[in-house]
Design brief:
6-stranded antiparallel sheet; 11 strands; 404 residues; single chain
Amino acid sequence: MNQQEAGCGQEDDWWRELYGEGGGDDAPGRAAVHDAGPADTPDTLDDRVASALRAVAAPRRAVPRRQPPAARPTASPSAPIPLQATGPGHRPAPPTPPAAPSAPEPPRDTPAPAGTGTPHDRPPLSGELGTLPAADPAALDDLVPDTALDGARYGSLTLLAASRRGDLARHRGDVRRDALLTARFGAGRHALILVAVATGRPAAAGGHRAAQEACARIGGAVGRSYTRLAEDIRTDHRSALKSGLQRLTDRSYGRLRDRSPEPDDAPERYTPALRCLLLPADPDCRTRVFFGVGAGGLFRLREGAWEDLAPAVPEQAARTGPDDGADGAEPFLFRTAFARPGDTLLLCSAGLAEPLQQDPAFAARLAGEWSAAAPPDPLSFLAAAQHPVAGHPKDRTAVGVWES
């Protein structure tokens, strides 16, 4: 028997087992099959084949009854479902997408990021982001952050300090040559606050390091003598204050000149400009002491008007200037001022003093913003001090003292 005949035999056996044909009652494992009699339905060969196919086919799953379309989802479970006209001549309106949540309006006192301001917002910070200064892997401590911001409140005064790299240095990829130090010595009513602002000479290599060192040296000197200095301020002992602070400044500058990287160059080219404020934390003492050497600014804002409090520079120093290699050190500057409630004292580097003195619109803008009853927040203070002024791309450092 060949393969084809064997296949036909298997099909015949399957057929007989299914329908009982030729099986007989005595076939092993088979129950007796009896004739059910004539049927009402057709009993042709085609009908039997169709019936057999239905019997061996896999059972079909019940088709679920078609459900009515679900209602359109709403923004919240408690929101009413909108009704739509569906009669002749009307087409259902497409679903309305949920409205995007509106961004909260920033507070008026907080400056908006650059490029997103409105006419009612504060101006963006001066300049665009520029190139990072080149870094030496063996001298990473030489890097200076683009911006420094600090502040504190003691007794009747609020102190805000900010320093930022100028547009020119940002464009060139130079480091910020302005240095800023805020330090408190002592505690309670006997504490003394020192603020130092230094600017490295543009013609000197490592001018930013010299500015940082000048702040550190004068800070150490004041910190070691703060008890005596605070007592002299409280007792208004001006002569002792001036001689003591001049001695500390000369000693600090002498060490800076000895560290000049170019021995053949004039030492004055390496020493930075330095301007400082001493602020007693005692609320009963409103004497503020200024001292320093070199260019910068000291102003007082009183009743909406600026006053220049910087001591007059001797004629000889004014004629020779700080960067011409003149013989001799620059003159020591000293002044005391009595603060009244509502006054604002401003100590700054030359990068801010120059536009404040030369641009009346800028001076009026600062006076308007800083004459409010309460001091600004630190970010608003930074934004106001760094407002761009054409022709003034230097680093800017500002220290504001608000008297309550």
